[in-house]
Amino acid sequence: MKKVSSQKKRSFRISRIQESPWLYLAPFFVLFLLFKIGPIISNFVISLYQLDIVGAGKFIGVKNYSRLLADKLFWIALRNTFSYLAMVGPINVIGGFFLALLLNQPLRGRGFTRAVIFLPYVIMVTVVGALWRWILEGNYGILNHYLQKFFNIESIFWLTTSSTAMVGVVLASVWWTIGYNTVIFLAGLQDVPKELMEAAEIDGAGPLRRLVHVTIPCLRSTSFFVVLTTIIYSLQVFGQVYTMTGGGPNYSTLVLVQHLYISGFRLFKLGYSSTISVVLFIVIFLISLGVFRVNKQTAG
Fold it and tell me: Residue 183's domain is classified under what CATH number?
């Protein structure tokens, strides 16, 4: 009897050990469901209502989505968002990669330079917007001052001209965020096996061939992460635009999240703003799936 009872106790302890990981993970899953999945579902439900800031709202089905398709500002915001991504994305990914390569070399002052490049990323977006509004100011901005001094270029009203406003936002965004990608690539470069680099060097491979055939393939996972996060963050751009241009001039910098913000928090059309967020979620989700598929195919 004692032997049977001891076996039961042992099996009970084993089952408790097997179940314990799920017990430890349970609080995370509960919070994830409450604060991530729950809001996504409720947001989709709200998009089916004509809902203002007061009142219970009226169920209207997919009329908000039909209205969205006919909304010219939505299409302008969508185009501007992808234009922003097309400019910021390649610069942040490629520029961050080459900065990481440079800062990975045994150069004097390397640690200080790494800190300087990453430092802007820890600054609040409102501060970044205010700083770059001053730098790009048409009459007394520091950028125009040096353009006139060294290149004899007349003052450019960066943020008040439709053709240059988005360029100004992109300059501020790249300065603010490229340090993050640089640090991620630097971390990836530390994991490139030195044995492979030494073997390639012994085989007569020059710096360019070692970069193409050793370094870049070893950074595939890192590059995938950087590309994916850059796309997601770029499609959700808001703070820089809000503080620097407010979406102007003439809607030339209006982006999707700002259109959502104006619809929900200025016009108080909560159902319609939820519709915009649902569409933005779908766009990000589909693009992310495409990035995952491309990464999987290249890995194979």
Answer: 1.10.3720.10
Token digits of residue 193: 């096996």
**Is-contact 210 192, C-beta < 8 A?**
no
Omega prior to 27 cis, within 30 of 0 = no
pLDDT at 84 over 60: yes
Nearest-angstrom CA–CA distance, 236 and 257: 6
Sequence-ordered strand ranges (E) for the chain: 49-50, 58-59
Number of domains in the chain: 1
Distance, in Å, from the CA atom of 254 to the CA atom of 265, rounded to the nearest integer, reads: 16
Residues 6+ apart with CB under 8 A from 64: 47, 48, 50, 271, 272, 274, 275
The answer on pLDDT for 154 being more than 60 is: yes
Question: What's the rounded Cα separation, in Å, for the pair 278 and 285?
Answer: 10
Beta bridge partners of 224: none
pTM over 0.85: yes
Residue 250 domain boundaries: 80-254
**Cα–Cα distance, 206 to 119 (Å, whole number):** 34
